[in-house]
Automatic annotation (TrEMBL):
<dbReference type="Pfam" id="PF00581">
    <property type="entry name" value="Rhodanese"/>
</dbReference>
<protein>
    <submittedName>
        <fullName>Rhodanese-like domain-containing protein</fullName>
    </submittedName>
</protein>
<feature type="domain" description="Rhodanese">
    <location>
        <begin position="27"/>
        <end position="111"/>
    </location>
</feature>
<dbReference type="InterPro" id="IPR050229">
    <property type="entry name" value="GlpE_sulfurtransferase"/>
</dbReference>
<dbReference type="InterPro" id="IPR036873">
    <property type="entry name" value="Rhodanese-like_dom_sf"/>
</dbReference>
<dbReference type="InterPro" id="IPR001763">
    <property type="entry name" value="Rhodanese-like_dom"/>
</dbReference>
Length: 113
């Protein structure tokens, strides 16, 4: 596990602020940032550096080989996706509040819907 991420035993979520602090590790490929929203949402807005894996196709997608942070619109779908991967041995966390909170707290240039 990356030393930058919280212990998976202590929680399943990370905040947008924590994710922003992890952007250099995400850009280096040490942590995967996964957008689990659907195609129309992905086309509307996204966090730079994210990989698109819609929740509707999670079962057929190859999980990343590095720890992953999953986000959606408000954080509910990403919790389901994170639990799905964790049950399969993948180190994963959900970003609380989703891209909506990312826009409010980190990057207001990311449009909201």
């Amino acid at each position: 596990m990356s030393d930058l991420l919280p212990d998976p035993e202590t929680g399943i979520e990370v905040t947008p602020v924590q994710v922003a602090e992890l952007l250099p590790a995400i850009q280096r490929g040490e942590i995967a940032l996964i957008d689990c929203r659907e195609d129309d949402e992905w086309r509307f807005n996204r966090i730079e550096g994210a990989r698109f894996v819609p929740l509707s196709r999670f079962a057929e997608a190859s999980p990343p080989e590095v720890p992953a942070i999953v986000y959606c619109h408000h954080g509910m779908r990403s919790l389901r996706a994170t639990n799905y991967w964790r049950q399969r041995g993948v180190e994963a966390w959900s970003m609380s509040g989703g891209i909506d909170q990312w826009s409010a707290q980190i990057d207001p240039a990311v449009p909201v819907y």
